[in-house]
Amino acid sequence: MADTPGLPAELPARKTIHVDGEWRAATSGATREILDPADALPFALVAEGDEKDTDLAVAAARRAFDGGRGGWPLTPVAERAALLRRVADLLVRDREELGLLESRDAGKTVEEGRVDIDCVADAFRYFADLVAGDAPGRVVDAGSPDIHSVVVHEPIGVCALITPWNYPLLQASWKIAPALAAGNTFVVKPSEITPLSTVALIDLLAEAGLPAGVANIVTGPGHSVGARLSEHPDVDLVSFTGGLISGTKVAQAAAPTVKKVALELGGKNPNVVFADACATEEGFDTAVDQALNAAFIHSGQVCSAGARLIVEESLRERFVAELARRAERIRLGRGTADGVECGPLVSEQQRSKVEAYVDSALKEGAVLRSGGKRPEPSPERPENGYFYEPTVLDHCHREMRVVREEVFGPVLTVETFRTEDEAIALANDTEYGLAGGVWSADAGRARRVAGRLRHGTVWINDFHPYLPQAEWGGFGKSGVGRELGPAGLAEYRETKHVYQNLAPKPVRWFAG
What we know:
Structural class: alpha/beta
Number of helices: 15
Shape: globular
Strand content: 15-25%
Largest sheet: 7 strands, mixed
């Protein structure tokens, strides 16, 4: 292929579509530039697949699943688990390279990228251990020694895995690891703007010994590749992580074929801080620090971000003043630069969306306490990069769009409460129900409030940690289905009841 203007000659177009064990270009020959969000310059050129490429990938996955003896679904559990552990070891081996790739692709800091790779390796190890410890089946007492009745779990088939741009490899691992552990084949479609680390993972799966056709990837846009995967009659399950609008389209496309659907969608997550959590200087400092972490890690581009600070009225002024002071000191810059604490947004489109939300909030009466604009350029912050300052908006209320809708950027809104019931009502006053946090020195109150919050994950005196062993999902418009934990493996399985009559006899229900 000819060189693309502005693209370094040493970065030619890559074959990033993987079908039946082979890397290939798009059937149409189309390509897409991958931009570094820190400077808006292209640093890779990938294949831009479409419906034809998707059909080929699904066909390969179907053949690999239906291949009979020797195929992946019939591979002994111990061998599947061993392969997942080999993948985890390869991820550890390539940690630095993959962490850097996540940084350049998604804009996050290199340290965040490294932590992501650690979590990916943990996910593969967890599902390897989980499936290796599986019971062979649950015996059902049929009331007769001549009947052997057992409930078993089997792979569901061909899985379509559609992943988001903010945590490319981590979110892919939450789907790929349990899908493989259960014995499925798959086609993964990473976000078209951050596909590179998922492409690298497919290579690692092959290096670990995964048979050809089990793992397939099509790089390309959602309106063609994602839509085709969702509707394809040979796909048995579609798992999607992303926004509410796209998730609704996936569910609609999957409905005619009645395939299994798992959706992990958005969040508008409350972080509730009671005054007693800040009764000591250490408690105050910790709560402020964690509020910053909740809102601004990865520039707020996190589905579980604590974007709604709900703080007790008596604490408000002191807490918000310190929060804003520290938000202004967050070092913005290229994720690969030393000392940078927060990178750019992923695209110009995303930054424009954030700016529009902040503008609307100010018009609706919010008070700007920090940020609210693009930063001045600097050597570590190129002028063309998609940077936006961490923003704190005080005196917010539920009628504001910035409070109701998912911003997905470095914007923290502040609301206040006077009573426990009022705090719970505010925290639950959202269409979403993904995650939330509660801060209190009163352990009984903290657990009581957590129990009344309608959110899939609730952290007490912490924010953002997740455990591979614990299910991840949400209430309301945050989606359906579960990832991680035993329920995450169950998403990729079908349940079968096998009833065996060891001494069959005629029934004689009918004359003859």
